[in-house]
């Protein structure tokens, strides 16, 4: 079962990296969202997957009666999802503002911080 | 460390100048006219302390001090702050503190009224402390630290007139060359420790053959020579020394003639017992020393600037010292020591004389001053005394130094005979330069000078006078001086007992050679103008030298750094990302390939049909994001893959994750749609086919890398002890039935707090981003007020995701 998930995760990363390498900001943003999902699935799969048994202790028991899904990666992923969304929202607004101020959505044309023709260093003491 | 009792005065000797340097600016501010005299008490006191050691050292004793500095079990080299005094250290330390006393008072007069005089005192005292620490150091790391400190303080002193470009250039040049040599020396010292196992010089000396017998001998030798030759300005590293004359004259007198440039000679002398008497040593040192001697002596005659003349004769003298040490003979070592002390006396005095002439008449060009002997009578006497010692007339110390050198002349050894002839020629030419400085400015018709000349103040004139007299006093009492100072020092270098037995005696051969020297010197002095114009014509033809080469080297470095920056830091985001992902692919595959851990392809998975369906939907969504032609399709496709992920979480026993993912995906799609429709952004791919293929290839390799990594990880047994702990203790300890929830709010509560802080920070940052308007009136689309609700959305998400967990 893991092989199928592994291949899907590989696809997530492939698509995400392909999108990140495009110079269009909005496509890079899509790539960020996808790579986040890919990482979450990766952590999930590394913790081994089981079918349909959530990590919950039944009422009146002190420990689960049957084998359950690994709760540790789930806790990690839960945090990761929320933080990933914060990052996504922030980047989205950043893109929006960059477009407003620079009138550009292509990284090739966004060169305020590192201008193309920066001055040469002085050759003297 | 040695077992001998610690002599704490040694620590004080090395540290006192640094402490004085701390207070020098205040002393200068509150006692301006006499601050030089006050500060000079520090080196004077050090000198007096050192005199109390003379008897013990002459009797063959040593003084020690050692405390552990940096010692670690993990680092084999014990770094101690340790000092010791033997004959060699004593001679150097007394020269440094004694001449230092004169220099400090001299600086008081020379820089009187200079607004940075206090700073200057600080620098020169720091230098003095570094130099004393260097010659007293026992531990090789202590030696290195003080060695580097002399380079740094020398940089500060050369660049003291920092508003002059020539000063800045000279300072950087000196720092680069001596600092580069320092690196070689560091490597050499570490090699010495690695080869011999001794971290203290005093114990290394008791194991004399350990380096010579090692296969790394040549490497150690070359590294040590790299340090010594750069510091002592041997050809081809000589050019920084004449340039360093940009410094104020007290600095030139102190650092660049009497002390710092001799640090390299000190190092060679110190290392002689363990490195000398080999073919390499006996060949390399005399050749470089001899070339430096002749270069310095000849170039000195080309100058009309008296400081430059002295700088080049200093160069020649350093060459002489290296040449003599390179002979590894008792007589040569004794001669080197005599020459070293005599040179420190007369050259220090001559520099101070030139500084006095410069200070009082406003020029130091040999052709512009003349007839000053009645205006500056004491300066004239000092100059004459120094020049006589430099020329080596009896009974000055210079005379005995010269005689001792000529003792090496013998028909049985062609090599040393040749070197003596080189020394003779060099001595003669340097004598001419010395005579020129002592005679030309003081005799002849009086010339108009920029300033009306008058005698220098006492603070500037007592130093050269005392040094000049000392040159003769030491010559007069040569037998005693030899036994007390030169014997122990030569013993330290030669590693066998040396009894000097110096006295005035008559030897036909020596007299002949002496007379020959004087004839050469006299002729050169008589024909000085002709020689100078000839040398200048030669120099005009042959312009290119290591000095210009240094500039080319420095500019080349700057251009190279500029080129590297432009290549690596070009500002093209896509290339940064390509580099990152190519490296990522390498990092994914390399360990698997190297450790031969590439996973085998597992059997075809046995999934239920709805599981297949969900996976297919996710893949479909991903594909649709890439090929989408319109914004809406792209957004919806993003939503599809997100929801598919949520379904996967649900199917495989993680309902909490599923709910949270569902919420987050919904929100993402909504705000993405909001922004994208507002912006009218074009989400279509702008890449041409080649770029798309290149990027696609990188992405596919990375994707396969992750699959391989995941399969490799899955083939290893999972350590579930942590998970088991959580499962077992969830109800008994934390009283919660949802184990994931318990982990988040109990076991990792602080992490969750951090997560909430991140969300809050992102919300505030978004608010700020929307609020900020660069450059006045807003352009583009969307007023801030309309967008104000948006920053609240992530916070709302938090609440919902928490709700999903509950």
TrEMBL record, chain A:
Subcellular location: Cell membrane
Pfam families: Oxidored_q2
Domain of life: Bacteria
Segments traversing the membrane: 6-21, 28-47, 75-96
GO-annotated cellular components: plasma membrane
InterPro entries, per the entry: CPA3_antiporter_subunitC, NUOK/Mnh_C1-like
Family matches, as Gene3D superfamilies: 1.10.287.3510
Entry membrane topology: Multi-pass membrane protein
Keyword Cell membrane (UniProt): yes
Keywords: Cell membrane, Membrane, Transmembrane, Transmembrane helix
Keyword Transmembrane: yes
Family membership noted in the UniProt record: Belongs to the CPA3 antiporters (TC 2.A.63) subunit C family.
Protein name, entry field: Na(+)/H(+) antiporter subunit C1
